[in-house]
Design brief:
The chain is an alpha/beta fold. The chain has 2 domains: 3-18 and 38-79 and 345-438, Aspartate Aminotransferase, domain 1 (Alpha-Beta Complex), CATH 3.90.1150; 86-338, Aspartate Aminotransferase, domain 2 (3-Layer(aba) Sandwich), CATH 3.40.640.10. The chain contains 13 helices and 17 strands. Strands 6-12-11-10-9-7-8 form a 7-stranded mixed beta sheet, sandwiched between helices. Strands 13-14-17-16 form a 4-stranded antiparallel beta sheet. Strands 1-2 form a two-stranded antiparallel ribbon. The chain is globular and about 55 Å long. It comes from Penstemon smallii.
Length: 439
């Protein structure tokens, strides 16, 4: 059975609706009716529902079947702890000010407030030469990935890590960069999959990688939790320079890095000439529901004809986006204040402690688990298994939600991803249940 297609409903996060029949609907005369608009053939190439709504659907079905079970979610990477008061209060005060003549504001700058752009550049890119005018505030990193795809267009060749966050692949399919899916492997034609597995220290063998226009790279990696070393990123930047490629670098989990690893691609000499960096407040400040992120496009990054990429990205932002919520930006600015940043980093430490508990649990069971040190995710290996089978077994026997690794690419077929986002009591209870299952 194809697990992805076995459910009679589909979700988008928490919103559920019946699956629309692919057959034509009948009109009042009993005759079938459909519009004359053809379906976008690029959408037809998408193989399955998007991974995380599919996990939500399975969680909902499990809760329906076991209404008395306490289901623990270690699946979708959603933060759980309350926002720091200094951050929430700032948003509340700003929202209240909108009810006054003096405090009301309408449209803001599409690129984000000057104050927040400056705070981002000074907090995360100090001494890296990144200007506040090179920072574009958005409603989240995932949204910016799609805007970047729109910027580059359908004629670009792309490379991705394998495993990798599925939005890169799916957006590439929708924009038309990817070809048809290979049924045997589940990979898409015209996409360079760069294997990042334990045997190569989760970094691709670039000597064997094909040259592409765009390279999507995530560090710390989602799902494996691996944070690239300075040497690895130096090799990546040099590879991009040699081939004239642009790196789209996702640093959404950089604040979770514990070891001596780069937190930004711009720590590497020459990166400003070849890299765009995407990041987010979601996992830094617990803004998964607030929605706030940013993208850095250096002025030094140029197209083949010498035209600045930043000019085109600014045009995309102005055309497709009216700017992030002023209320969310107020919260983002508060989270980067002296007191606010200390408060949000304490939440990061909380989740890192959760990761330590889960990592110790899997290791004590003799299971090979990666990540959990520089990222809030653990990548757990079940040799010879099918990740969806492991997902189902854990769910049925422990009522714990994980994520099957094959949803992140072919290299994940024997892995599951486990998130450290959760209340401490749930993490401890999950640890107990996992010990009982695998001991």
């Amino acid at each position: 059975m194809n697990y992805f297609l076995s459910f009679s409903f589909m979700t988008c996060k928490s919103f559920l609706h019946p699956r629309v029949s692919i057959t034509a609907q009948e009109n009042e005369n009993g005759k079938s009716y459909s519009t004359k608009v053809a379906r976008n053939p690029k959408m037809e190439r998408l193989r399955y529902n998007y991974l995380f709504p599919e996990i939500s659907a399975r969680e909902l079905q499990h809760v329906t079947e076991y209404p008395n079970a306490k289901v623990i979610s270690l699946g979708i990477g959603d933060t759980t702890e309350p926002l720091p008061d200094v951050v929430a209060s700032s948003m509340a005060n700003y929202a209240h000010s909108l009810s006054t003549l003096k405090g009301y504001r309408g449209y803001g700058a599409e690129q984000g407030s000057k104050e927040l752009r400056k705070a981002i550049s000074e907090t995360f890119y100090k001494d890296m030469g990144i200007k506040d005018t090179e920072v574009f505030v958005s409603d989240g990193a995932q949204c910016d990935i799609s805007r970047l795809q729109l910027l580059f267009g359908s004629n670009m060749s792309i490379a991705v890590q394998d495993p990798i966050f599925p939005a890169y692949i799916d957006s590439s399919v929708i924009i038309g960069q990817a070809g048809d899916v290979e049924n045997e492997s589940g990979t898409y034609q015209n996409v360079e999959y760069m294997k990042c597995e334990p045997q190569n220290s989760f970094f691709p063998d670039l000597s064997k990688a094909a040259s592409t226009d765009i390279m999507f790279f995530c560090s710390p990696n989602n799902p494996s939790g691996h944070a690239a070393t300075y040497e690895q990123l130096e090799e990546l930047v040099q590879f991009a320079q040699k081939n004239g490629s642009i790196i789209v670098y996702d640093s959404a989990y950089a604040v979770y890095i514990t070891e001596d690893r780069p937190r930004s691609i711009y720590e590497i000499p020459g990166a400003k000439k070849v890299a765009i960096e995407v990041s987010s407040f979601s996992k830094i400040a617990g803004f998964t529901g607030v929605r706030l992120g940013w993208t850095v496009v250096p002025e030094e990054l140029l197209y083949a004809n010498g035209f600045p990429v930043i000019n085109d990205f600014n045009r995309i932002v102005c055309t497709c986006f009216n700017g992030a919520s002023r209320i969310a930006q107020a919260g983002g600015l508060a989270s980067l204040s002296s007191d606010g940043f200390k408060a949000v980093l304490s939440l990061v430490d909380y989740y890192k402690e959760n990761a330590e508990i889960l990592l110790e649990t899997f290791q004590s069971l003799g299971l090979r688990a990666y990540g959990g040190i520089n990222a809030p995710y653990l990548w757990v290996h079940f040799p010879g298994s099918n990740s969806w089978d492991v997902f189902n077994e854990i769910l049925e026997k422990t009522h714990i939600i994980t994520v099957p690794g094959s949803g992140f690419g072919p290299a994940g077929k024997e892995f599951i991803r486990v998130t450290a986002f959760g209340h401490r009591e749930n993490i401890l209870e999950a640890s107990k249940r996992l010990r009982n299952l695998f001991s």
